Amino acid sequence: MLSRVFGLSRRSFDSLSEQEILALAISSEEDDSRIYRAYADGLHEAFPRSAKVFEGMAEEEDGHRAALIELHRARFGERIPLIRREHVRGFYQRKPDWLVRPLGIERVRGQAEEMERQAERFYREAMKRTSDAGTRKLLGDLAAAESGHGELAHDLEAEHVPDSAKTEEVSTERRQFILTYVQPGLAGLMDGSVSTLAPIFAAAFATGDTWQTFLVGLSASVGAGISMGFTEAAHDDGKLSGRGSPLKRGLASGIMTAVGGLGHALPYLIPHFWTATAIAAVVVFVELWAIAYIQNRFMETPFLRAALQVVLGGSLVLAAGVLIGNA
Asked: Rounded to whole angstroms, how far apart are CA atoms 182 and 160?
């Protein structure tokens, strides 16, 4: 067990034979081809033009794999040793496509560039370990090809993704981000910040007890977060509306709802009532202006209108809580 954790059961790269290096190159090219096709599948619905770029990259990796297999057949026969990246200590690893989701355009392009740099370094190191002229030539050619994949990607983009399509894809990506994360998160932050004002400040002024007020704020915030999260996730599966994963939207809404309420509940951990209340009031002010900023930044609501709506609404709820607590 410990040997697996610390990588002691893996082979060192220096211990690999020329046949094993070729086998490792073959399996690596197979994996990269699969990853590029997974990227293409993930981008196909929202970014069909960029998906074609990654299909082209996958076909290029298939060509590399075929050349390596022919070389292995000529030198070592038909039986290719089973050796993969995870069998070699210190060898670069690839993230499965589900770990880099959501597949944003820039994120996937950056991941692809890193893949090509790692592959180039591998082929250049592999060249140092082989004495056969034909093998060295192929590995050198593959290193040069991996180095030139940036140009290939640009050529494929020029063919499949003209400037107008890039602009459209960037707009689509931003819209998807807003629908999946910003809108639910903003709704949660507004609900958590505003709806908990009345019970928290009513409890504060009614009891004068900071610990009891904190417990009221904690229960209100967590309860509202759970309610908002489940409501957001359950009422729309995202298939027809295009708003994305209900799980992601539910988490964004639920977490931001809880954060909005806890912001002005946490100061009541301070045992001095008026100090805690003053800090909570400052936090409320910051929360309301943050909501106005997010509305202006992502929802394109004029800042003054957003500030008026949020600050006025929050002030009314706060005043209601104070008046009820003093009743």
From this structure: 30
Through-space distance between the first and last CA atoms of the chain, rounded to whole angstroms: 65
What lies within 8 Å, CB to CB, of 287 at 6+ separation is 189, 193, 260, 263, 264, 314
Helical H runs in 264-302? 273-298
Same-domain pairing of 155 and 278: no
Specify the DSSP element, H or E, that contains 68.
helix 48-76
The two three-digit tokens of residue 291, written as one number: 């909501």
134 with 71: CB under 8 angstroms?
A: yes
What is the C-alpha separation between 178 and 141, in angstroms, rounded? Answer: 44
Helix pair angle (273-298, 197-207), 10° resolution: 170
Shared-domain flag, residues 151 and 193:
no
Residues 58, 15 within the same domain: yes
Spatial CB neighbours of 264, under 8 Å, sequence gap ≥ 6: 193, 196, 197, 200, 217, 280, 281, 283, 284, 287
Tens of pLDDT, residue by residue over 8-54, are: 567 887 888 888 888 888 988 888 888 888 888 877 777 777 778 78
- The CATH number of the domain where 73 resides is what? 1.20.1260.10
> Please, what is the average pLDDT of the chain?
78
Count of C-beta atoms within a 10 Å radius of residue 24 = 23
- Same domain assignment for residues 236 and 111: no
- The tally of domains found in the chain comes to 2
Residues 236 and 279 in one domain: yes
- The structure tokens listed for 148 are 């030139």
Residue range 280-302, pLDDT digits in tens: 888 888 888 888 888 888 777 77
Which domain covers residue 273, as residue numbers? Answer: 167-326
121: its two tokens: 């370094």
Query: Taking a C-beta distance cutoff of 8 angstroms, is the pair 319, 311 a contact?
Result: no
Which contacts qualify for 276-285: CB closer than 8 Å, 24 or more apart? Answer: 276/204, 276/210, 276/213, 277/201, 277/204, 280/200, 280/201, 280/204, 284/193, 284/197, 284/314, 284/318
Are residues 7 and 103 part of one domain? yes
**Secondary structure letter of residue 181 according to DSSP:** I
Please choose, from the candidates 261, 262, 280, the residue with its C-alpha nearest in 3D space to the C-alpha of residue 270. Answer: 280
